[in-house]
Write a structure and sequence with these properties.
Elements (H helix, E strand, L loop, with lengths): L1 H34 L4 H25 L8 H28 L2 H7 L2 H12 L10 H22 L4 E3 L17 H28 L3 H23 L11 H29 L1 H5 L4 H14 L3 E2 H50 L1
Antiparallel strand pairs: 1-2
Helix pairs in contact: 1-4, 1-9, 1-11, 2-3, 2-8, 2-9, 3-7, 3-8, 4-11, 4-12, 5-6, 5-7, 5-12, 6-7, 6-12, 7-9, 8-9
Length: 353
């Protein structure tokens, strides 16, 4: 029993580290496929469709075993919204942003997710903002620093600290036309959509006890919506044909690692630990992305990316510290209230004795 409890405590930690590696790996391999000419819109439709097909037998098996979840209009509506926000809109912005910039920038801007989550929580009155309180001051300061870092990494490249000369000029990403600023803006929008999706997915996971059912309908609606959108956004019929092995590898990798694995385990973590815990691992993505970009894509490492990433990380952990301090303050207040109640009751007990 002791080992089981330890395993349950360690499991979310290990799972989220693997998730960050998987996400950066997906950014890297999808960038490599897009360099070969694959449309990011086609990529989104194909890999989500494949992932949905992989999940279908498991979903049907759960129904036949009587483990399925009773589907209500409320659940289906939330699944639809998750598909719209978490797949259609988010992934269109995300892969367009990666296509215009790099996986390293995507990882850096991704640290805005907890900041946007905090802002949305304040707007939705899920978080109380009192600037006289040190915890609120920390969260506000961290938010401003993180957003400033995102602006630096988006608007300022700076000199290349590591300038790689590729062995094959045809594979050099730096020779391709790129709009770094537009990519950064799209990735910032992606972070906002991700924050919104995390809050919605947490609420949906509490209503739907089966991760497979949630992820299946999430992927199903997302695939349908992204297919409709991509038909308008991708006007070239030949773009739907796959011409290179890397395109097929990227689609299979994305379907298995993201649609099936990541979405399922993140849904479980959101239910067990909440959205704040899930986003605390985002800063790891910067280091992983830089290493993968330098090793596999021949990316240059720019000063702006280093400065901006550092600011985003500092701001992010300042927000997390503020949230932890707030929890400690609440716990201390509860203890003080119990002690005051106990002390106020003590004379009555003595007098009655």
């Amino acid at each position: 029993m002791g080992w089981m409890s330890v395993l349950m405590e360690v499991a979310p930690f290990m799972v989220m580290i693997i998730v960050e590696c998987v996400e950066v790996g997906l950014s890297t391999i999808s960038k490599a496929a897009m360099v070969k000419g694959m449309s990011n819109f086609v990529f989104i439709v194909y890999y989500n469709a494949l992932g949905t097909l992989i999940l279908l037998p498991v979903f049907l098996y759960n129904i036949f075993r009587g483990k399925g979840v009773r589907l209500t209009f409320s659940l289906l509506y939330k699944f639809f919204l998750l598909g719209l926000i978490g797949i259609c809109l988010l992934q269109i912005c995300a892969y367009a942003g990666i296509n215009y910039s790099s996986p390293t920038l995507a990882a850096a801007i991704g640290n805005l997710i907890p900041v946007f989550t905090f802002i949305l929580a304040v707007i939705l009155r899920m978080e109380i903002l009192d600037l006289r309180n040190p915890s609120s001051q920390a969260k506000t300061t961290g938010t401003i620093v993180a957003i400033s870092g995102a602006m630096v990494v988006t608007l300022y490249k700076g000199p290349a600290l590591i300038n790689q000369t590729p062995f094959d000029a045809s594979n050099n990403l730096l020779l391709l036309p790129s709009n770094w600023t537009l990519g950064g803006i799209l990735l910032a929008i992606t972070s906002l959509l991700s924050s919104t999706g995390n809050i919605l997915q947490t609420a949906t996971a509490k209503e739907c006890s089966d991760e497979v059912t949630l992820v299946f309908f999430y992927s199903f609606f997302g695939t349908m919506l992204s297919a409709v959108a991509s038909m308008f956004l991708e006007s070239d019929p030949s773009a739907w044909m796959l011409h290179h092995k890397i395109e097929i590898i990227a689609i299979i990798y994305a379907a298995v690692s993201t649609t099936v694995f990541r979405n399922t385990v993140v849904t479980w973590c959101l239910r067990e630990k909440g959205p704040v815990y899930v986003v605390t691992y985002k800063p790891l993505a910067i280091v992983i992305a830089m290493i993968m970009g330098l090793a596999f894509l021949g990316d240059n490492l720019y000063l702006g990316s280093i400065i901006g990433s550092a600011a985003i990380t500092i701001g992010f952990y300042t927000v997390i510290w503020g949230q932890a301090r707030e929890k400690d303050d609440i716990a201390a207040d509860n203890v003080n209230k119990l002690e005051s109640i106990s002390n106020s009751n003590a004379p009555l007990l003595n007098s009655s004795g």
